[in-house]
TrEMBL record:
Domain FAD dependent oxidoreductase: 39-399
UniProt GO molecular function: oxidoreductase activity
Protein name as catalogued: FAD-dependent oxidoreductase
Keyword Oxidoreductase appears in the UniProt entry: yes
Organism: Pseudoduganella rivuli
């Protein structure tokens, strides 16, 4: 009989519409009715929106936060929980585009996100199982080592603090044997994103942020004062921050700048004590791979393994339906079997998907729009938003208060335009297909090497 990982009915038994980390809050916030007024309206209750709200309250501003579902519903409540800096960025891609000096500042922004979140957890008393383990980007086949070393050299030239772990160093750390060598970033680690985002929500409520849930922004009217309309009421303020990330194009903004991509995750049943001991992996480093579409694996506080990404998806027109992605879950289960052959009998307890947004240059998309420049937005950061979209809260709040933070200045650049449909659908689908084939070749070679018992 095939392994449990493969036979589990991932859709009906394990699919979670709100991800595997959290439940809907027991204290749902009211729907917006009537008229409310504030210094700033934040739209979207994820890492970006909640941190912006907290930073604004710390500066004495009154804040209304409008959330379409509940604060934590989006990618912030569904991600893998890697709190990382620049590791995993395609440094070459953007360094060529923006030049060495600005690329160095952009890497500085990514790196600054890690201590920002660490300070936020401490300041707001958020317990979210954070382990300061560092993160390894690890090869599963010898053919990936060259890319790792090249990316590391570029990253270090741009100021990213990285270190190469050879085969012996990986084994000394107890990192599972399928991961041959890697680039290690000592800063950051893994956390429970559900606990983090709900901790932010609680802190925001305690700080006096007026959160309205089930209160999606439907339309807004610009002017010196902005009026934001929901189904039940309206909010007015001199500033509005759209912290809606992958959902922003549905509001009629950034549709020509970012592409929403579906990212999926699966979580195993807890490992038994014996399995955990046999696995080693004492440092619990978050692991990601240098595939074209990365694989990532991490242990959780409940001793399960969460595996993410591996197979991305794009919905025609940039849609973000909250539906299962069975092909992606099957691909993730197969990746888990490849990298953890000793855990064949481990079941899958949950699978889910969420949406990130990607610019063609893979850089953050942050700025302002409107005739008065008082509609701010933050999107992009693709799969690296735990640190960056949190730090974005500081930059956006400062901007609302009239200050241009140096890191915001560093991020300003011309984002390339995306293609109109149906060209965009064809381009993204083709790119995903080609990268999928290239990754399949690497995986085939790694499997072959493993069955022959030679170092892959
Ligand atoms: C499966 C997965 C794994 C990932 N793993 C990692 C990782 O390990 N590390 C990492 O750094 N990043 C990771 N990411 C990316 C990271 O989660 C995101 O970059 C980050 O959470 C984005 O935060 P945000 O606040 O910008 O957006 P979101 O968290 O998506 O928040 C946007 C909010 O806006 C709300 N909204 C939408 N439309 C409206 C409207 N009209 N009115 C009001 N509200 C609205 C949504 O309901 C949502 O709550 C992952 C993402 C996914 C999906």
């Amino acid at each position: 009989m095939e392994a449990n990982m493969a036979t589990n009915n991932l859709t009906t038994e394990a699919f979670r519409t709100i991800g595997g980390w959290l439940e809907r809050p027991a204290d749902p916030q009211p729907q917006l009715t009537g008229n409310v007024n504030a210094d700033a309206i934040i739209v979207g209750g994820g890492f970006a929106g909640l941190n912006t709200a907290l930073e604004l309250r710390a500066r004495g501003a009154s804040v209304v936060l409008l959330e379409r579902d509940f604060a934590g519903f989006g990618a912030s409540g569904r991600n893998a929980g890697y709190l990382g800096g620049g590791l995993g960025l395609e440094y070459d891609m953007f360094a060529k585009r923006v030049g060495h000096e600005q690329a160095t500042k952009i890497v500085g922004f990514y790196e600054a996100g890690v201590p920002y979140v660490e300070a936020r957890l401490a300041a707001s008393g958020i317990a979210c199982d954070y382990i300061q383990s560092g993160i390894v980007r690890a090869a599963v086949h010898a053919s990936q080592e060259g890319k790792l070393r090249k990316d590391m050299a570029t990253g270090m030239s741009l100021g990213a603090p990285l270190q190469f772990l050879d085969h012996a160093a990986m084994r000394a750390r107890g990192i599972p044997a399928a991961f041959l060598c890697g680039v290690y970033a000592a800063g950051g680690g893994t956390l429970d994103p559900g606990k983090y985002v709900l901790g932010l929500r609680r802190a925001a409520l305690q700080a006096g942020v007026r959160i309205f849930e089930n209160s999606g922004l439907q339309a807004y009217h610009e002017g010196k004062v902005i009026t934001a309309h929901t189904a039940g009421g309206k909010a007015t303020a001199p500033y509005m921050v759209l912290a809606t990330n992958a959902y922003t194009p549905q509001l009629g903004l950034l549709g020509n700048k970012v592409t929403p991509l579906r990212v999926s995750a699966i979580e195993t049943e807890p490992l038994r004590a014996k399995q955990l001991a046999a696995l080693g992996w004492h440092g619990r480093e978050g692991i990601m791979t240098p595939h074209w579409t990365m694989e990532s694996f991490r242990l959780t506080a409940r001793n399960t393994i969460v595996a993410t990404t591996k197979q991305l998806n794009y919905v025609y027109g940039g849609g973000t339906p909250n539906v299962p992605d069975n092909d992606a879950y099957a691909a993730l289960a197969s990746g888990l079997r490849d990298r953890f052959p000793m855990l064949q009998d481990l079941g899958i307890r949950a699978c889910w998907s969420g949406y990130v947004s990607l610019a063609y240059d893979a850089l953050p998309v942050v700025g302002e729009t409107g005739t008065h420049g008082n509609v701010l937005y933050s999107a992009g950061c693709s799969g690296h938003g735990v640190a960056t979209q949190s730090l974005m809260g500081l930059l956006l709040a400062e901007r609302v208060m009239g200050n241009e933070h140096p890191l915001l200045a560093a991020l300003r650049h011309k984002t390339p335009s995306v293609l109109p449909e149906p060209l965009q659908w064809c381009a993204v689908k083709s790119a995903l297909r080609i990268t999928g084939l290239l990754d399949a070749i690497t995986n085939h070679r790694a499997r072959g090497a493993a069955t022959q018992g030679v170092a892959p």
